[in-house]
From TrEMBL:
Keywords: Disulfide bond, FAD, Flavoprotein, NAD, Oxidoreductase, Redox-active center. Signal peptide: none annotated. This is Dihydrolipoyl dehydrogenase. It comes from Christiangramia antarctica. It comes from the Bacteria.
Length: 467
């Protein structure tokens, strides 16, 4: 029987990063993955394929709607080749997954394919094609991730009533895609198919889309997506989803409690994800799982069993790849006796629609709830020279700073390339910068980043220069 210092169960961004860091720190490491490709949800059916489709559909949309205004004429009709777009996405995915395999080999990490399940707290059975092998692991990291959640009354047939996994590989552009859930997945994939020509209707239970983000971002994003042709029903409670041949009928109660009926040919259910521990046999090791299915951990990300840790989507907190990665590094370093730290308040959140939405720190709603006195500085993207040059004029940047100390408490952005711009806010906040600090730093001209400086100027004595 092979013995390892550490076994990692699951090869998503949490698991594979943990494995690399463990190996770097001199631990003999194995990674167990039930699928034949490494990379987990993020690389196979999440972040990477969704961004590949967002980028491809963005090019298509530009060619159809925006080239002309830039003086670019295409003789003949711009045509969509969905099969080719999907093939490209698949090749981006496989190259990325191969990259993870390369990193495992480079770091001398044993990759074991099969479903990992605890035999006891130091032994793991790995089953593949009816055969089981057992390894001994002094320590184990559970990184088994998450799966799409569903509503109890919906029959996900995975053909027409689908999750993100199927939406990433449709063979045709829907005529009318009904999206249940106006969160990250619904809006990103809704925008992909809207750009490719589908009618898209989003049904959201709460009173605004992306409800966990600052309400200024929800408002602006909904406005822009409406302009792009996406329809919204907020404060609307779905009651039933039925399939009749190729037709999907969604019934819901709207904000006035009036029944509405939507008919489409596809229904994307994107109402969140649930932690995944099926088949793990956590009981055999005595690992506690809470009532929501999450593996319980303490502040060291250690379970109730002292040699077993858990990270990523399977534990509490944001279900984000970069959060899982930070936790992977954190656990490896903790095991090695170091004292790492994660500032959960500074994990940025991004929605990769166009315009992109990005945020870090506290929302205005949170500050109000916590009774913190704050100042606000806002700057509209349309006032930037760079935005006018590109034609990407939608959006704004909002900085919230402590009323007395001027410390930046939250940064909320919507606009072109804000997914990348948010890194400046994270850096500033990690170093506990004041709005004045950001306002006094030189930002290259003409860039979208100038809006960060201008919002900081607005937050300090209302002295934005270009508005
Ligand atoms: P996962 O990536 O879910 O990996 C878990 C792995 O464990 C899987 O490979 C699974 O097969 C394996 N596994 C489970 N049980 C066992 C077992 N018993 N034995 C062996 N293997 C097992 N996040 C972002 O930050 N940015 C994005 O742009 C983004 N886009 C997304 C788009 C979509 C459509 C989706 C669905 C998610 C997206 N996410 C994004 C979220 C991101 O994918 C997750 O937060 C991230 O993958 C979590 O990483 P993880 O390592 O915890 O788990
Ligand atoms: P989500 O939590 O982002 O959004 C779910 C939405 O569905 C919410 O707005 C919620 O109010 C709504 N909802 C819940 N129940 C409903 C109901 N009965 N009827 C109508 N609406 C309902 O979840 P989503 O979009 O499924 O994504 C899952 C996870 O994947 C997210 O937590 C996110 O962290 C991660 N992800 C991250 C991405 C990124 O970082 N860009 C991209 C895609 C996914």
């Amino acid at each position: 029987m092979s013995t390892y210092d550490v076994a990692v169960i699951g090869s998503g961004p949490g698991g594979y990063v943990a494995a690399i860091r463990c190996a770097q720190l001199g631990m003999k490491t194995a990674i167990i993955e039930k699928y034949s490709t490494l990379g987990g949800t993020c690389l196979n059916v999440g972040c990477i394929p969704s961004k590949a489709l967002l980028d491809s559909s963005h090019h298509y949309d530009d060619a159809i709607r925006h080239f002309e205004e830039h003086g670019i004429e295409i003789p003949g009709e711009v045509k969509l080749n969905l099969e080719k777009m999907m093939e490209r996405k698949s090749s981006v995915v496989s190259q990325t997954c191969d990259g993870v395999k390369f990193l495992m080999d480079k770091n001398k990490i044993d990759v074991i394919e099969g479903v990992g399940s605890f035999k006891d707290k130091t032994h793991i059975n790995i089953e593949k094609d009816g055969k089981t092998q057992t390894i001994e692991a002094k320590k184990t990291i559970i990184a088994t991730g998450s799966k799409p959640a569903n509503l109890p009354f919906i029959d996900l047939d995975k053909e027409r009533v689908i999750t993100s996994t199927e939406a990433l590989k449709l063979k045709e552009v829907p005529k009318h895609m009904i999206v249940i859930g106006g969160g990250v997945i619904g809006l990103e994939l809704g925008q992909v198919y809207r750009r490719l020509g589908a009618e898209v209707t989003v049904v959201e239970f709460l009173d605004r889309i992306i409800p966990t983000m600052d309400s200024a971002l929800s408002k602006e994003l909904q406005k822009v997506l409406k302009k792009q042709g996406i329809k919204f029903h907020t404060s609307t409670k779905v009651k039933s989803v039925e399939r009749n041949g190729d037709e999907i009928i969604v019934k819901a109660d709207d904000k006035k409690d009036k029944e509405i009926e939507l008919k489409g040919d596809y229904c994307l259910v994107s109402v969140g994800r649930r932690p995944y521990t099926d088949g793990l046999n956590a009981d055999a090791a005595g690992v506690e799982i809470d009532e929501r299915g999450m593996v319980k951990v303490n502040e060291h990300l250690q379970t109730n069993i002292d040699n077993i840790y858990a990270i990523g989507d399977v534990i509490r907190g944001a279900m984000l790849a970069h959060k899982a990665e930070e936790e992977g590094t954190f656990v490896a370093e903790t095991m090695a006796g170091q004292k790492p730290h994660i500032n959960y308040n500074l994990i940025p959140g991004v929605v990769y629609t166009w315009p992109e939405v990005a945020a870090v720190g506290k929302t205005e709603e949170q500050l109000k709830e916590e009774g913190v006195k704050y100042k606000e500085g806002k700057f509209p993207m349309r006032a930037l020279g760079r935005s006018r040059a590109s034609g990407d004029i939608d959006g704004l940047i909002k900085i919230l700073a402590d009323e007395k100390t001027d410390e930046v408490l939250g940064v909320h952005m919507i606009g072109a390339r804000t997914a990348d711009l948010i890194a400046e806010a994270v850096t500033a906040m990690e170093f506990r910068a004041s709005a004045e600090d950001i306002a006094r730093m030189s930002h290259a001209h003409p860039t979208y980043a100038e809006a960060v400086k201008e919002a900081a100027l607005a937050a300090t004595e209302n002295r934005a220069l270009h508005i």
